[in-house]
Amino acid sequence: MTVDHESETDRGAVGVSIEVSRFFQRHAGVFISLVPIVIVVLRIARVSNFETTTARGILESLGLVQVVAGTLLPLVPTALFASALALSVYAFRECTPLARASRVIAPLVALVCVVLLPWGIVVLLVAATVVVVAIEWRIARHRSRPLFTSFNLNWFLGVAVLLIVGQLFVYGTMWLPAERIHRRDGPPTVGYVLDAGFVWTTVLVESDRTIRRYRTDALERRVVCQLKRDIDGGESLLDLAFGRRREPYPQC
User: In the beta sheet, which residues pair with residue 213?
Assistant: First the structure.
């Protein structure tokens, strides 16, 4: 009876896994289309400090197309890195012609991402990779099975989404360059210019993430600057290895 009970449980567990997998495969188009929308919503929420009025002001000033492009384009290297890791696992686990060809291409793409990405992003990606490998190693050891046998497409999609969300919240600065805005009738303001019109200039203030409108003719000059926590424009490992220093913008 014990053997029958265990096999029935295993069949039930396998059945649930198959149903879940089939559910994601059946609705893959819906989930893939929802991921960019969720990422854009999270980015706007992060940039606006979860203030609804500020989020609406950003959308009104910039427009949806610029918000989507500014949100998704900086995340392409992270998605490429996660895809290269997924392809590497597939390449060394399978014996198909595609897998054999990927044994050179996938690690090379991952290495290029590590070398060319800013070092702060690399630290986040490598730390996340180490955590994922450690969890998989512990599970494999506990269940006495080979490493990476449980990895599949859904697993890597989940990890890629978590990496992107982590990048948004850890290094989620505004996609526009920060500027020090000098006015005639007040102290300089550090922020992001959302709209520079003939009459009014709309600015997202960095300190409190509120939207302010200044008369354009009252602005003396605008200077692009760099925030201390903004690592998107930092040196890559290749720059550090060859001693190449990028000309930094003045600190805000």
Answer: 202
Q: Are residues 25 and 99 in the same domain?
A: yes
- Domain of residue 193: give its range: 179-224
Give the distance from CA 158 to its chain's centroid.
13
> For 89-123, how does the pLDDT look when each residue is reduced to its tens digit (9 = 90+)?
777 777 777 777 777 787 788 788 777 777 777 77
211, 193 Cβ separation under 8 angstroms: no
Same domain (yes/no): 220, 124? no
Q: Residue 182 above 80 pLDDT?
A: yes
Residue 218 has pLDDT above 50, yes or no: yes
Do 196 and 189 meet the contact criterion of CB atoms below 8 Å apart?
Answer: no
d(CA 153, CA 82): 11
Residues 111 and 152 occupy one common structural domain: yes
Q: Of 146, 170, 194, which residue constitutes the final position of a domain?
A: 170
Q: Is residue 248 part of a domain?
A: no
Kindly report the backbone phi and psi dihedral angles of residue 194, in degrees, each rounded to the nearest multiple of 5, phi listed first: -85, -35
Find, among 79, 82, 160, the residue nearest to 90 by Cα: 82
Distance CA 133, CA 179 (A): 40
Q: Give the pLDDT confidence of 44-93 residue by residue, as tens digits.
A: 888 888 888 999 999 888 888 888 888 887 777 777 787 777 777 777 77
The three-class DSSP label of residue 17 is: helix
Number of domains making up the chain = 2
Give the number of residues written for the chain.
252
